[in-house]
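Fold this sequence, please.
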Amino acid sequence: MDIIRIGTRGSPLAVWQAEWVQSQILSLHPQCQAKLIKIKTTGDKILDVPLAQVGGKGLFVKEIENALLEGRIDLAVHSMKDMPADVPQGLCIGVVPKRENPFDVLIARNGYSFRDLPQGARVGSSSLRRGAQVRHVRPDINVHPLRGNLDTRIRKLETEGLDAIILAAAGVRRLGLEARITEYLPETIMLPAIGQGALAVEMREDDDATLQIIGSLDHRETRLAVESERAFLSRLEGGCQVPVAAYARINKENINLTGLVAEVDGSVLLREIITGPLDKHKELGVQLANRLLEKGGRKILEDILGRPVKDVT
């Protein structure tokens, strides 16, 4: 009997995601045993400092990827938005299941919509991307740093005297907390994080046996959309340290990709859209990133990162 060891973080949302993959494997292959192995990551241990100050996305995946490389687990389930642009040598994103709602939501204490939040409202946000877009649309809002698991952040809405918090819709929905949502924020206000709403099932590149078991979970449209967004991210050399966002939509054999680069304070927000054939989805991500670099994104990124960004090619 096959035993599949699934690595995951220990947060309620991460466990939900891993258990969902586990249930799909057991449904497709009843002869398998699928076992969850919880792994504590650096990002789970550092809860009092914004991610941008301590290394960004890789903090939530590195220890789990090490377990994969060392053969202690057979696959890992991550939120795609936590994945750095580059996957370590020897590993790959084996499957990308169908995407949940990719947008952000507002949870407000008094039922306010984003536009109706009172002047000077205190809004909790865990990312530079969200903070920059909030400040661009509503410069009066005071963005309050917010870390912790999703359920912890929702509790902080009350305990820290916040007027509202902004979270990914996918996590709220997956944990059955939709009733708390005040508003789904449109992409005109809040463009999502790269890969938001999608899962990444990571595995060893040479593990054909595991791919045979999980391969049917792959959702072609979600994979192509996410690959386009991640090509955009890779070209910008971005992560949690910079306010970048992208969202791809697929329409038959075409892809429409919107990308964004912003100043942390929201004073400048650059936004572009590109459309092209689906078989060029990664190239379109790079082209869109190059357009934004040429429009002023290069200076924004270099000022934030403190180093040069590669020349436009």
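The domain at 3-97+199-218 is CATH 3.40.190.10 (D-Maltodextrin-Binding Protein; domain 2). The longest strand covers residues 254-262.
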